[in-house]
Every structure is written in structure tokens, then in C-alpha cells.
Amino acid sequence: MARTTSRSKTERPAENRTGEQAPNAVWFKPVMFGFMLLGLIWIIVFYVSNNTLPIPGIGAGNILIGFGIMFVGFLMTTRWR
Asked: How far apart are the first and last CA of the chain?
């Protein structure tokens, strides 16, 4: 006896990963960790050089720059998937 109905898999619509659901680009994680490490190195160089490096003219402003660079990296962690 022949079957009149065909048995096929029910096709689900393909998941479109756009916007919030899309995974990060390959470069995202290295850049994120790079910012955090660069800020840390900036602050370490400032303390090790007795407040003369990386930018000698701004003095303690180097700490703000270092923390600012690290903050950019930490802000990027909120978008990491």
C-alpha cells in the first residue's frame, strides 16, 4: 500500500544571529585584554620610574591615563560573548 503523505523533517527557520545575539569578532578579546594590560603596564612604569615616565610633564596624571585605558578594557567586557 502506497503512502500519500511524505515524511520529511520539519524545517526550522535558521537562526539569524544579528545584533545582541551575534558572537564577537575574533579581534575583540585580544583588544579587550590588551587595553587592560596596557593600562596596568602604564601604571607600573609610572611607579617604577619614580614618576618620570611614560609622560614626564603631567606627573600623577599618568595614573588617570592608566586607569582610563584599563577602564576601556573593562567596559568592553560588558559586550563580550
From this structure: 53
Using an 8 Å Cβ cutoff, are 62 and 43 in contact?
yes
pLDDT digits (tens, 9 = 90+) for 11-21: 666 666 665 67
Q: Can you list the pairs that 69-73 forms with residues at least 24 positions away whose Cβ atoms lie under 8 Å?
A: 69/35, 69/38, 69/39, 69/42, 70/35, 70/36, 70/38, 70/39, 70/40, 71/39, 72/35, 72/39, 73/32, 73/33, 73/34, 73/35, 73/36, 73/37, 73/38, 73/39
CB 35, CB 77: distance < 8 Å: no
